[in-house]
Design brief:
- Helix 8 packs across helix 10.
- The protein is α/β, with parallel strands linked by helices.
- The N terminus is likely disordered.
- The chain is built from eleven helices and eleven strands.
- A nine-stranded mixed β-sheet has the order 1-2-3-5-4-6-7-8-11, with helices on both faces. A two-stranded antiparallel sheet has the order 9-10.
- It has a single domain, classed as Rossmann fold, CATH 3.40.50.1820.
- It is globular.
- It holds the Pfam family Esterase.
- Keywords: Acyltransferase, Hydrolase, Transferase.
- Its EC number is 2.3.1.122, 2.3.1.20.
- It comes from Streptomyces roseicoloratus.
Length: 315
């Protein structure tokens, strides 16, 4: 039950607020194929976990940012899954983008998981570096673990997904491929088509993953693509899956290089193609083409977070 339900309020009142004060997430434990090997729950808002999982050949980390009133309110909260870009990790939004400040006073849980230096939020076609099944880790293990261990709305209107660059692609992919999971999706300089720009994004994913993630393996197959996998993961080929969702898009207009494999012009081109397809079938979106290259824009990240809070079920 949620805190705003009358019977819940009566229970809390009669118990003298004891239930509301209980740190219910402090007992977060193993489950869903995850085993906690390191954790820190000392910070009142930012809780850290590191997991052992058969899905990944090393122990990925996750930051869970709690609302200011989580420990005493007794409320149930919506959740934003916030995905980092290439060559980044689970601490990036805390270390570089002031995610604590941007969410201060907002009743929203933010989950920031590792996604690999070039994992592309996918289960790769091949790996020479051990398992790197990031999609399985996030969707089959981490998401149900979060909902079992924190007071969250485990429903469509209780979840959003957003990300930067590679993470923006991951957000678009997860929102479409797992249609009933997320009511809001956002891509900050995230490419929106694997086949657009003459397949530049698929080549980008394959080259970057081979170089820094999979020891010569690849996300989508080299030299020949696994065409079924590309189609299944391609946001622009799943346009109808964005209907009834909040869609938020950001792309820069300067051709800044990205990791030596592509540039912001590719992101812009694929987002424009994606938006044209949304417009063609009458799916609304909030999109922004802004000056500059490939980086997170604080003002638009703040606008995105405010939009997530407005769209999702209220705590």
């Amino acid at each position: 039950m949620t805190a705003h339900h009358p019977s819940r309020r009566n229970i809390l009142k009669s118990a003298g607020g004891v239930l509301a004060a209980a740190p219910t997430a402090a007992a977060a434990g193993d489950g869903f194929g995850l085993h906690i090997v390191d954790r820190n729950e000392n910070d009142p808002r930012m809780w850290y976990y590191r997991f052992r999982t058969d899905a990944i050949g090393w122990d990925p980390g996750v930051n869970v940012l709690l609302p200011d009133d989580y420990h005493w309110s007794g409320r149930t909260y919506p959740v934003l899954y916030l995905l980092h870009g290439g060559l980044e990790d689970f601490i990036t939004f805390d270390a570089h983008h002031d995610i604590r400040g941007l969410t201060a006073g907002k009743r929203l849980i933010v989950v920031m998981p590792d996604g690999g230096r070039a994992g592309w939020y996918s289960n790769p076609v091949s790996s020479n570096a051990g398992p790197r099944n990031w999609e399985h880790f996030h969707m089959a293990q981490l998401l149900p673990w979060v909902e079992a261990n924190f007071r969250t709305y485990a429903e469509y209107d209780g979840r959003a997904v957003s990300g930067f660059s590679m993470g923006g692609f991951g957000a678009l992919k997860y929102a479409a491929k797992y249609y009933g999971h997320f009511a809001s999706v956002s891509a900050h300089s995230g490419p929106a088509s694997l086949r657009g720009a003459n397949g530049a994004v698929t080549h980008w994913a394959n080259l970057s993953s081979a170089a820094v993630e999979l020891n010569g393996g690849s996300v989508y197959g080299m030299p020949f693509w696994d065409e079924a996998r590309v189609s299944a993961d391609n946001p622009i080929q799943r346009i109808e899956s964005y209907r009834h969702k909040r869609v938020f898009l950001v792309a820069g207009t300067s051709p800044e290089d990205i990791q030596g494999y592509a540039n912001e012009s590719v992101v812009l081109e694929t987002q424009r193609e994606f938006k044209a397809n949304l417009d063609r079938v009458g799916i609304p979106h909030d999109s922004h083409e802004v000056s500059g290259g490939h980086y997170v824009r604080r003002d638009l990240l703040e606008r995105d977070i405010n939009g997530v809070v407005a769209r999702l079920r209220k705590a």
